[in-house]
Amino acid sequence: MSLRLIDLSQEIFQGMSVFPMHQNTFIMTNMTHEENMQATGSKSLGFSARNLLISEHGGTHCDGVWEYKPSGQTIDKMPIDYFWGSAICIDLSHISPTKYIEPKDLEEALKNSGQTIYQGDIVLLYTGHYDRYFNTDKWQTTYSGLSYASATWLAKQGVVNIGVDAPAIDHPDDLNFSGHLVCGEYDITNTENLCNLDKVVNQRFLFFGLPLKIRDGSGSPIRAVALVEK
Ligand SMILES: N[C@@H](CC(=O)c1ccccc1NC=O)C(=O)O
Question: Which CATH number fits the domain 61-229, given the four candidates 3.30.420.130, 3.40.50.300, 3.50.30.50, 3.40.50.620?
Fold first, then answer.
């Protein structure tokens, strides 16, 4: 079997767009090659590395339930199987950012995909937001999101990780943060700031978006990929 990786991750760099109220990303040089050679006295080789100051929710990342529910599990304690496994991506790109994603939209998108949701699946929502608004002033403000009913619909199908190509699974107007609220009710995870979902839409594939093993972490940046048959 011939396999191919599709990168679903955004780049990490100083100046990257970050969800409101989270830490902005700063990247500092710890030591240059020259400084290190001077420090060790080596005439042949020195190492250079940088220091990252980044939010646990910077760029493409997954959330531990503890982030928004103090009794929930932190990212290091959540089942690792929630972060990789069999996944599908469904097409919701026709839904206006002024609207919520509703259960009927999920049902229709699932039917159109020709796929089925199984217990333990990861479901990625292709909203088209990354393609339309990444690198614009609408990126952090103008996207669709799950209603309480549609998030519950996914959780009830046994979905363990809801991914999206937008800054959040919630609608930006939704002060109940319904997507997260439901993830907290079912103790499941969510993955935000994905990209390239157009390349996997309507397919079943293996998804990997493993968090760093951050002790007591509220979440973690990930390298999200889809493993597909060529
Ligand atoms: N996407 C956000 C989480 C988020 O949007 C959120 C989660 C729970 C309760 C409120 C939230 N948003 C706050 O503006 C994050 O990655 O931290």
Answer: 3.50.30.50
